[in-house]
Automatic annotation (TrEMBL):
Family classification: Belongs to the EamA transporter family.
Top-level division of the source organism's lineage: Bacteria
Pfam families cross-referenced by the UniProt entry: EamA
Places the protein is found: Endomembrane system
InterPro entries documented for this protein: AA-Vitamin_Transporters, EamA_dom, EmrE-like
This protein's record includes keyword Manganese: no
Origin species: Paenibacillus germinis
UniProt lineage: Bacteria, Bacillati, Bacillota, Bacilli, Bacillales
Membrane-traversing stretches: 12-31, 37-58, 70-88, 100-118, 125-145, 151-171, 183-203, 215-233, 245-264, 270-287
The entry's keywords: Membrane, Transmembrane, Transmembrane helix
Protein name: EamA family transporter
Membrane topology designation: Multi-pass membrane protein
Domain EamA, chain residue ranges per copy: 13-140, 153-286
């Protein structure tokens, strides 16, 4: 996995891979009948199992990690675990389009946090581009927003999960300056998985009483949106601003909505397609304004 650091492949290719990969997350969750905390726990711990054979190669780096960085990594992992818990649970109460559209608020939280914590500033052009992209993303799910009943609960859960992942992203940007993507990702996934395991112990849900189909979904979540999605984004944090990585995640509502149309039978409107084009234009403008070559 170190080879990624030496690659000549354009960053945009990795961005595209990451966006497509995380877009499958909502689909796999909707296919599952297991509790959200169980889905998230096995998604992360199975990812750790896939990465474990390579961990020995990083033993010297792990030994050099300071206590302060271990604490920050733990907080980042806990935040990621809470994000999965709340966001996955939201999909049981609201539509894929609505839940993922709320995730588009992540760049706002990241941008604000980057300014307050690190003093990072953003150009006016980048802010305008962000607004364009967020308007497009919100329009994708606008017809599915409901301000009462189960749908409202799902939307609120998605919002809390968005705040949690923004904190995870901010901590990751700082830690990735001196910790490799592999080591950072492994322990963040581990801390997140353990938090979810503790949650499952206290709520009394079963750890094993699931059919073969569910275990297949857990594995798909580990491989596709976690390894090819979150791991890739963690790697990109060393080379891009946290706000830029967060902005690329805005492609998820469009990707998830298109996949939900083909795989779940959810409807898609002309307005949603036009909003998706607006979103992509905004993201492209933001990356052009916010990132140096």
């Amino acid at each position: 996995m170190n080879a990624m650091n030496k690659t000549k492949i354009p960053i945009s290719i990795f961005l595209l891979i990451g966006i497509i990969a995380i877009s499958f997350s909502a689909i796999f969750v909707r296919w599952s009948d297991a509790p959200a905390a169980v889905i998230a726990m096995y998604r992360l711990l199975m990812t750790n199992a896939l990465m474990l054979p390579f961990l020995w190669n990083y033993r010297k780096e792990i030994a050099r990690i300071r206590l302060r960085d271990w604490l920050r990594t733990a907080i980042s992992g806990i935040s990621l675990g809470l994000h999965f818990l709340f966001w996955m649970d939201s999909l049981h109460f609201t539509t894929v389009a609505s839940s993922t559209a709320i995730l588009t608020l992540e760049p706002i939280f990241v941008l604000l946090g980057a300014f307050l914590l690190y003093g990072h500033r953003t150009s006016r052009a980048a802010l305008i581009a962000m607004c364009i992209a967020i308007v497009g993303a919100i329009c994708i799910g606008w017809g599915d927003f409901q301000f009462s009943g189960k749908a409202l609960k799902g939307d609120l859960l998605s919002l809390v999960g968005t705040i949690a992942v923004a904190l995870h992203m901010l901590l990751g940007k700082s830690l990735r300056e001196h910790i490799s993507a592999f080591v950072y990702s492994f322990f963040v996934f581990l801390f997140a998985g353990l938090v979810l395991a503790i949650t499952n112990v206290f709520t009394g849900v079963s750890f094993t009483a699931y059919p073969t189909k569910e275990w297949g979904i857990f594995l798909l979540l580990a491989i596709v949106p976690t390894v090819f999605g979150h791991y890739v984004f963690n790697w990109l944090l060393k080379y891009m601003k946290a706000s830029s990585v967060s902005m690329t995640v805005l492609g998820e509502p469009l990707g998830s909505t298109l996949l939900a149309y083909f795989l779940l039978g959810e409807t898609i409107t002309t307005i949603q397609l036009l909003a998706g084009c607006l979103l992509l234009v905004g993201v492209g403008m933001f990356l052009r304004s916010n990132e140096k070559k």
